[in-house]
Design a protein that fits this description.
mainly alpha
Length: 70
């Protein structure tokens, strides 16, 4: 549950975006079938920018991680 709480913070959002950017860069640099890795990297980028955590349902937490919801 600590992971989901961390992902709800600004640092967690930045981590998701950073990890996604790393996947996109690696996929683009290696080319070929590695473009699949680049495409997968778009998911954590979107999750960070739109503020949702795909791991949250695994921990029975809300998918959307805004602090304005109780």
């Amino acid at each position: 549950m600590a992971l989901v709480r961390f992902m709800a913070t600004s640092a967690g959002r930045a981590t998701r975006v950073g990890a996604g950017l790393m996947l996109v860069v690696v996929g683009a640099l290696l080319g070929g079938a590695w473009w699949i890795v680049a495409a997968v990297g778009l998911v954590p980028i979107a999750a960070g920018l739109l503020n949702f955590c795909l791991l949250a349902p695994l921990f029975h937490a809300r998918l959307h991680t805004t602090s304005s919801h109780p």
